[in-house]
Amino acid sequence: MFCKRIVLATMVAAGLTAPLGAQTTLKGAYHDFFRIGAALGPEYFTESDAAGATLVKAQFDSISPENALKWESVHPSPQGFHFGPADSYVEFGVKNHMFVIGHCLVWHSQTPRWVFEDEQGKPLGREELLRRMHDHILAVVGRYRGRVSGWDVVNEALDEDGTLRQSPWLRIIGEDYIAKAFEYAHEADPKAELYYNDYSLENEAKRKGGVELIRKLLAQGVPVTAVGLQGHYALEWPSIEAVDATITAFHALGVKVNITELDVDVLPRVTRTHTADVSSRAESGADSNPYTAGLPAAQQQSLAERYAALFRVFLKHRDAVTRVTLWGVTDRGSWLNNFPARGRTNYPLLFDREGKPKPAFDAVIGEARSR
Ligand code: XIL
């Protein structure tokens, strides 16, 4: 690292490095530390947005599918699978030598109701639901074996208080649905990395529950490679100390930690607490959408400082953190324009609505360079 710094300083002195901007890339700056990913919608992986696809190829060395591999997308009806968009997502990643993530196998959201019911609409029994879960995981993970490198196997199994969420998976199968999902994924692709993924693990109670859950799974020999901290953050929440402590707590169990869905909400909070539960809905009044004409310089600066502080802590834990993925590419396409309230103008990512790097991008690059 010392050596790298001297080389860089010499290059800067000789005018050999490009100014921050066009030539500078996230994946280049972080190459020695961890992978940098982005979640993609179809416009990127089908390349219908050619400039967007070019930006993704230049900047990121890992990709996640924003929706294309969720149960409702790949397996919308009991009659069968619909793999078209997922195939083109995986193809895009493989062609561009990216670390391709699968998201996600077992979740309570974006999973059709039929999954949990028999033909008469009555709740399934444990064995029948386990069989469905097995069939789904073997079909989806098996199809992309050797091409998708890591899977979010179970997404959001915990409630805010750290107990298991009362989802249909838990109600019908019981607590071991989580272990079973990992076993099936491992059976389908023994070489794939397998993740437990959740939001708000930075909050004390949920973190405690998460640590307990992962500790138990590991003790039973369940093949968990890493914990994914979704990283749906705000300017003031969570504290950097909480992020730091959360990475430390999970790494101490012997798993890696990935930041899997990073974004920073800059708009006024419209829900009672910070949440990334996609079923949360809120109304927005005029005062909750204050930046429709652009993000003022002061907020732009706060966002850049927030990103710098977050990447400082990720870099501090570079022995634990193997990937940091942003949940989207540009502010224009971010899900936070419509969550938890619809139709707002948010600025949560590193590229602006035109795909230009923001001050937050420079701040993130700056953190890597100062190592
Ligand atoms: C979001 C997508 O970004 C939206 O397009 C979709 O309408 C809802 O889901 N946690 C997750 C992601 O694990 O799958 C969610 O993605 C964001 C919260």
Any overview of this molecule?
There is one protein chain. This protein is an alpha/beta fold and 371 residues long. It has helices at residues 2-13, 26-29, 42-45, 50-59, 71-74, 84-95, 126-143, 168-173, 177-188, 204-219, 240-251, 297-316, 359-369, and strands spanning 35-40, 62-65, 99-106, 150-155, 193-198, 226-229, 232-234, 256-265, 321-326. It has 13 helices and nine strands. It has an eight-stranded parallel β-barrel, surrounded by five helices. The site of (3S,4R)-3-hydroxy-2-oxopiperidin-4-yl beta-D-xylopyranoside has 8 residues, from loops. (3S,4R)-3-hydroxy-2-oxopiperidin-4-yl beta-D-xylopyranoside (XIL) binds at residues 66-67, 155, 230, 261, 276, 278, 335.
Radius of gyration using CA atoms only: 21 Å
Ligand species: (3S,4R)-3-hydroxy-2-oxopiperidin-4-yl beta-D-xylopyranoside
Spatial strand sequence of the major β-sheet: 1-2-3-4-5-6-8-9
| Low-confidence runs of at least 5 consecutive residues | 1-19
- Estimate the strand proportion: 5-15%
| Structure class | alpha/beta
* Anisotropy-based shape: globular
Number of strands: 9
